[in-house]
Specification:
By secondary structure, the chain is α/β, with parallel strands linked by helices. It has 12 helices and 10 strands. The protein has a single domain (4-146, 219-290), classed as 3-Layer(aba) Sandwich (Rossmann fold).
Length: 294
């Protein structure tokens, strides 16, 4: 798993924070996880969004590793983790994976910080495995329904072509990488880091994006209100000015759960890449709240 170019690109964003890569066998497939920080510090689980990977959190590493150890997972079908043989990306699938990951790498309940689709997986895990989760901070996640006939149609469309690309070279793959939706203000070194860890050479001269297009099916689990009502741990919600609070369900969240702390940040859906400093401060407050003795 050695990737010296990737290490250099990541370090340009994170600085010299201790880091190691591990692989956890869940019994179904292998999950890759990047660990930053001191092993003696309390752990935090970081869950990326749809089409992303563990290194999307690199911008927040300097802020969050001051007194915590970060466990950034590549979800199944993403990054360096394995893909299921058949399309299997329901929230219950992620739950099984994350339980195995926590069994291998952390003791006791852990805080979770999650972006976009990862927030849905985090809420599901916290509702169904309350003893494992100390708190959840959701960053620009859709809280409304995901599913419907259009998802089932997409299922059939991508079943036989789950792999994107190909690209003839590393340079061409890097040159065509784009954030969807676009995010103005992302530093060039951050974009290079994210792009590099999003592509792989599966065969000589065959460069591909490290992402199973079958994930785009959505989870089909409906809205998050029933899950949030079951939570036994603190919840915080961050959302972006440019992301559309109606689309994300934030207005409905506050109607159902007015006591949940929310915070508006500048930028769009991927504001964690462009506005990491204010987000990092907010997340450190969250970690102090849910980590005893921090």
């Amino acid at each position: 798993m050695s990737d010296r170019r990737g290490e250099i690109l990541a370090e340009a964003v994170t600085g010299p924070v201790p880091r190691r890569d591990v692989v956890v066998d869940t019994g179904e497939l292998s999950l890759h996880c990047v660990i930053w920080g001191d092993d003696a510090d309390p752990p935090v689980l970081l869950i990326h969004g749809n089409g992303a990977h563990a290194h999307w959190w690199d911008t927040l590493v300097p802020a969050l590793t001051r007194d915590h150890r970060l466990l950034a997972v590549d979800l199944r079908g993403h990054g360096s983790s394995e893909w299921p043989a058949e399309i299997a990306y329901r929230l219950a699938d992620y739950e099984r994976d994350l339980v195995e990951l926590l069994d291998a790498l952390a003791e006791g309940p852990v805080p979770i910080i999650a972006h976009s689709m990862g927030g849905r997986a985090a809420l599901w895990l916290a509702a169904h495995q309350p003893a494992r989760v100390a708190g959840v901070a959701v960053v620009d996640s859709s809280l409304g329904e995901v599913g419907g006939p259009e998802v089932e149609a997409f299922r059939e469309k991508v079943r036989e072509r789950r792999m994107g690309g190909p690209y003839a070279s590393y340079a061409s793959a890097m040159a065509t990488y784009r954030l969807v939706p676009d995010e103005p203000g992302v530093p060039e070194e951050v974009l290079r880091d994210v792009a590099h860890h999003a592509i792989t050479e599966r065969e000589p001269g065959d460069w591909r994006v490290c992402f199973d297009r079958g994930v785009l099916l959505g989870d089909g689990e409906g809205n998050m209100w029933d899950l949030i009502a079951k939570l036994q741990c603190p919840l915080r919600v961050a959302y972006a000015q440019g992301a559309g609070i109606e689309q994300l369900g934030v207005i409905e969240l506050l109607e159902h759960f007015p006591e949940v702390p929310t915070r508006l940040f500048p930028g769009g859906h991927h504001f964690l890449l462009a506005h990491s400093e204010p987000l990092g401060s907010w997340l450190r407050e969250f970690l102090r709240e849910v980590t005893p003795g921090s």
